């Protein structure tokens, strides 16, 4: 596909396709047609045939014959420009590592041994033209370019029969099998040994000493690419013992609480008992999936030794990277541009990397900003790779307050860095100008530079759009080196269709990438998550490309790390307890949950395929003489005349194959090219398809009606049914038996932005909790789903159940945070007077809770401050966002009232942490504010009552005050957020909270529901003179 070939827009349902040319100004590339050698300056000369001598067939870099021979004999044997290994030209001397090409005296050409890649291509073409009928029009293979408007033409037809005899007799019966390297026979192995001896005699192989030198490297390449690092037993064993002890203590504590009711406040006691039982259940769900925590190590040098051998083609697997954006006002294009630039500059072979941006808002602002990004990438990418800078997002690299000269030895680095910083600042100005222009939409809509109306002027009714900005045939940097592909995608949207928000956009990108590049692995990132570690993709490949265990891994999840968070992390935005404790524990069971970004997927796992099964244990076989043990041997059918048994089995396989092909349409949709790509486990595009046909088919697979009557969103791709589609998608994979991996490199792989404002943070937590409630009430609820095959491990199921039920903890938590104020206002308590023996239960419970936390921090490396911030925000979010999520979820299930999805704002304030103190009104602030006021009023009332009643009232008061202060301390960050920078709480919050607190207090005094009613005086307390 050619970069900058134009914006392709169209609708498959309406049979229209438009190619808009001339919007992008094609920049002139470096002229490589000179007649002089770029190395020595001499004339290049001509060949025997009189043609200009060309040393490199890939880029045509001008080099003369003597420099070419010297580079092959004494140098790196690679082209100075494109780094491709020089091929041996006719008349050149042979050097070690040469491929035997175009030589009639090469011994290998005496035998026709077909390469595995050629077999794969033949199989692909056979499947593409197989027995799959989709009702298409006539063949359009001859159309190499698009006319301005194409109507009434669909994809190429699919023939009704497999090509007979074209690919051998075994092609049809083996199409349904996975493609693996063919085993080498003993004869071929012996022939290879004899040929090596012959080459050694001819002087074409080096002496055996070189083999001895490289033996250690070969052994290193055969080693595993990663390993588990178990937590030290001195750290994990005490932790497990304390968990068991805490469970026993908790059982005794609950037994004591149930058997010792408070008769004069039975309502308070019963409420507290229900809350404590739920807290115990929630703790079990959260605690036991952390029983087997592990760490992991990767070996990047072994990955290079195995798949990037010198003088051989790079064997690393291709990767497609997905980035999603919706609203350029909430997700600034400059933030998205930095993410794209960090992807394009990643340390990975450029021909193996493709980046797709999904613009679900069809914004011309995003499109033009991406065009500027592609142009700036031509300068930024070579600068990053030449100087090995980290991170490779320019905004964050130039803002680092570190010594940027450390480990830099290039003499021109300072000069180039200064020039690149100025280039980036000019780039920022251009992008900001685009955003500023987009603030006011013209009445006639946006117009492109060539006068064509922007196809996405109506964001809810527009065709699908695809633009290839960078890639082969035009995607070169300023030095003439190839750049990774960069593709703009905006799926078709029409009224009356359900588009499924982010999950639908991700599935559209899966299909588009399968048609255009079809990499076997996919990395998905949010638009504000840039690549902080340029070797992050290689880290994931250490697991996914491992020969021993890689085939059973569905995805590799990286932890989320964030920039721009205040030093104290007031609202627990880093979420380190979850990422550094819970996820490590899940990695020791069946793998971490998918968290929506920073995850590298195996494409076959997203297609709904099951993981490969391991070899089964052989069943015991006995002879016929002893039928009591084992089973009898089955007599093997002898291959009769012409192999009748084998031929009958082959016919059955063919029928089964054809039946499965007919089901592909119902499963994957009506696209022959896409269905073919799903069968290519190792990736790749069908070789018989032209770029024009691929782009037209890409428009087809992003049409709004493509998923109708298919399994997309139910069994394939990102799963629909919840706004937290990430949890559902990972859960479905684990239920099929796949395993996931948690990778935590020393340098964080990805970094993003988090909402440090209180209101934005609560709205984000609300969205997550609402998604969990939706999953709980759906058919994919972990409580009921996935038992049939038994592939999901029990502790893994505990973790998934916990992710769906944790919002319901808000109900007992709200009641429990209200109880202290009620106890202080009514002079009652939830516990009776306890004896010395009973007090041991309370002391032991608090000690076990404290010890569990300390030991957990010890093996995980999380600081106590981060742990405490997490505890505080658990209470803040529980009594606000989680509570509203439960209410909204129940309204959606019972009344069908849906809620709108709000994109979290990624815009940042120019002032350092200025957004932290900004106040934004939301109803989520009312419940925690009310609880704070009630408890403060209760503390004042309780102390005043104790002062009036004398010394004997202070003893019972301490327990109530401790309970109330526990609530206030946990809500303290929320209180600081309400006060803001000027320590002023907005009037509306104060009015609502005081009003609710007053109403609650008056009703309580009037009704007094939880206190036992007594008639007449209590003679035991008052005496006879009452």
From TrEMBL:
Residues bound to Mn(2+): 502, 526
Pathway linked to the protein: Glycan metabolism; plant cellulose biosynthesis
Keyword Acyltransferase applies: no
Record-linked PROSITE patterns: ZF_RING_2
Oxidoreductase in keyword set: no
Record membrane topology: Multi-pass membrane protein
Active site: 360, 726
Principal location: membrane
Domain RING-type, first and last residues per copy: 37-83
Keywords tagged on the record: Acetylation, Cell membrane, Cell wall biogenesis/degradation, Cellulose biosynthesis, Glycosyltransferase, Manganese, Membrane, Metal-binding, Transferase, Transmembrane, Transmembrane helix, Zinc, Zinc-finger
Requisite cofactors: Mn(2+); Zn(2+)
Binding sites annotated in the UniProt record for UDP-alpha-D-glucose: 330-331, 360, 501
A GO term, aspect molecular function: zinc ion binding
PANTHER family reported for this sequence: X-BOX TRANSCRIPTION FACTOR-RELATED
UniProt name for this protein: Cellulose synthase
């Amino acid at each position: 596909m050619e970069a900058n070939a134009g914006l392709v827009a169209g609708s498959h349902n309406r049979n229209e396709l438009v190619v808009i040319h001339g919007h992008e100004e094609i920049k002139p590339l470096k002229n490589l047609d000179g007649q002089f050698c770029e190395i020595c300056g001499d004339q290049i000369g001509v060949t025997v045939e009189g043609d200009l001598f060309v040393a490199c067939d890939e880029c045509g870099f001008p080099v003369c014959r003597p420099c070419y021979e010297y580079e092959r004999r004494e140098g790196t044997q690679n082209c100075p420009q494109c780094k491709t290994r020089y091929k041996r030209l006719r008349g050149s001397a042979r050097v070690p590592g040469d491929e035997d090409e175009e030589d009639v005296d090469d011994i290998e050409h005496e035998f026709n041994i077909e390469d595995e890649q050629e077999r794969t291509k033949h199989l692909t073409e056979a499947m593409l033209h197989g027995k799959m009928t989709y009702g298409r029009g006539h063949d359009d293979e001859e159309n190499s370019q698009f006319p301005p408007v194409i109507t009434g033409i669909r994809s190429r037809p699919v023939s009704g029969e497999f090509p007979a005899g074209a690919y051998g007799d075994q092609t049809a019966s083996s199409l349904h099998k996975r493609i693996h390297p063919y085993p080498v026979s003993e004869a071929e192995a012996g022939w290879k040994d004899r040929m090596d001896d012959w080459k050694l005699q001819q002087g074409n192989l080096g002496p055996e000493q070189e083999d001895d030198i490289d033996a250690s490297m070969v052994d290193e390449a055969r080693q595993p690419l990663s390993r588990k690092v178990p937590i030290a037993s001195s750290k994990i064993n005490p932790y497990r013992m304390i968990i068991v002890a805490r469970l026993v203590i908790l059982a005794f504590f609950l037994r004591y609480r149930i058997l010792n009711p408070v008769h004069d406040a039975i309502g308070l006691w019963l409420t507290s008992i229900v809350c404590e039982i739920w807290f115990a259940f929630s703790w079990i769900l959260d605690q036991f999936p952390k029983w087997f925590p592990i760490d992991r190590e990767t070996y990047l040098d072994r990955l290079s030794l195995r798949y990037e051998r010198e003088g051989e083609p790079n064997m690393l697997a291709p990767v497609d990277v997905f980035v999603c954006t919706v609203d350029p006002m909430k997700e600034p294009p400059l933030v998205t541009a930095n993410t794209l630039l960090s992807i394009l500059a990643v340390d990975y072979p450029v021909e193996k990397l493709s980046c797709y941006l999904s613009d679900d808002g069809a914004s011309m602002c995003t499109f033009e900003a991406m065009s500027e990004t592609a142009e700036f990438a031509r300068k930024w990418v070579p600068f990053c790779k030449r100087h090995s800078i980290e991170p490779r997002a320019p905004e964050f690299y130039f803002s680092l307050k570190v010594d940027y000269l450390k480990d830099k030895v290039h003499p021109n680095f300072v000069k180039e860095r200064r020039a690149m910083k100025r280039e980036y600042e000019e780039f920022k100005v251009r992008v900001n100008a685009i955003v500023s222009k987009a603030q006011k939409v013209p009445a006639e809509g946006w117009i492109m530079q060539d006068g064509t109306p922007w196809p996405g002027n109506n964001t809810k009714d527009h065709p699908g759009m695809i633009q290839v900005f960078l890639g082969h045939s035009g995607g070169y940097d300023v030095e003439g080196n190839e750049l990774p592909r960069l593709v703009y995608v905006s799926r078709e949207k029409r009224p009356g269709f359900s588009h499924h928000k982010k999950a639908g956009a991700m599935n559209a990108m899966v299909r588009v990438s399968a048609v255009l590049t079809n990499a076997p692995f996919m990395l998905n990132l949010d638009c504000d998550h840039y690549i902080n570690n340029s070797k992050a993709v290689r880290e994931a490949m250490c697991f996914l490309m491992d020969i021993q265990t890689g085939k059973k891994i569905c995805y590799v999840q990286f932890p989320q790390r964030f920039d721009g968070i205040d030093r104290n992390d007031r609202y627990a935005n880093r979420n380190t307890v979850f990422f550094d404790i819970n996820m490590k524990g899940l990695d020791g069971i069946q793998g971490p949950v998918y968290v929506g970004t920073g995850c590298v997927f195996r494409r076959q796992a997203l297609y709904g395929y099951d993981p490969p099964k391991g070899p089964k244990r052989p069943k015991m076989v006995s002879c016929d003489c002893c039928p009591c043990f084992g089973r009898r041997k089955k007599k093997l059918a002898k291959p009769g005349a012409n192999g009748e048994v084998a031929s009958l089995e082959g016919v059955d396989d063919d029928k089964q194959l054809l039946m499965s092909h007919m089901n592909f349409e119902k499963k994957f949709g009506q696209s022959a090219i896409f269905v073919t790509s799903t069968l290519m486990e190792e990736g790749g595009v069908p070789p018989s398809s032209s770029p024009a046909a691929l782009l037209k088919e890409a428009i087809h697979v992003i049409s709004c009606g493509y998923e109708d009557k298919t399994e997309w969103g139910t069994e394939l791709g990102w799963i629909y049914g919840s706004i937290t589609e990430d949890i559902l998608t990972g859960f479905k994979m684990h239920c099929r038996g796949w395993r996931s991996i948690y990778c935590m490199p020393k340098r964080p792989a990805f970094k993003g932005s988090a909402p440090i404002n209180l209101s934005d943070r609560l709205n984000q937590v609300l969205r997550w909790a609402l998604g969990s409630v939706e999953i709980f009430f759906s058919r994919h609820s972990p409580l009921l789903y996935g038992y049939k095959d038994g592939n999901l491990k029990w502790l893994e199921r505990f973790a998934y159940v916990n992710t769906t039920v944790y919002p319901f903890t808000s109900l007992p938590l709200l009641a429990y945070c209200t109880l202290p104020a009620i106890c202080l206002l009514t002079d009652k308590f939830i516990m009776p007077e306890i004896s010395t023996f009973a007090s041991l239960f309370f002391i032991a419970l608090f000690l076990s809770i404290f010890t569990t936390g300390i030991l957990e921090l010890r093996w995980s490396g999380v600081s106590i401050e981060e742990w405490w911030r997490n505890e505080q925000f658990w209470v803040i979010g529980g009594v606000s966002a989680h509570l509203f999520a439960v209410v909204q979820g129940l309204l959606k299930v019972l009344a069908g009232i849906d809620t709108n999805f709000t994109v979290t704002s990624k815009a940042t304030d120019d002032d350092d942490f200025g957004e932290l103190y900004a106040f934004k009104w939301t109803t989520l602030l009312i419940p925690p504010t009310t609880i704070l006021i009630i408890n403060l009023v209760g503390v004042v009332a309780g102390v005043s009552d104790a002062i009036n009643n004398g010394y004997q009232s202070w003893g019972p008061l301490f327990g109530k005050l401790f309970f109330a202060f526990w609530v206030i301390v946990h809500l303290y960050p929320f209180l600081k957020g309400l006060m803001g920078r000027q320590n002023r709480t907005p009037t509306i919050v104060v009015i609502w909270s005081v009003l609710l607190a007053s109403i609650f207090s008056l009703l309580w005094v009037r009704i007094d529901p939880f206190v036992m009613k007594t008639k007449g005086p209590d003679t035991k307390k008052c005496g006879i003179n009452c």
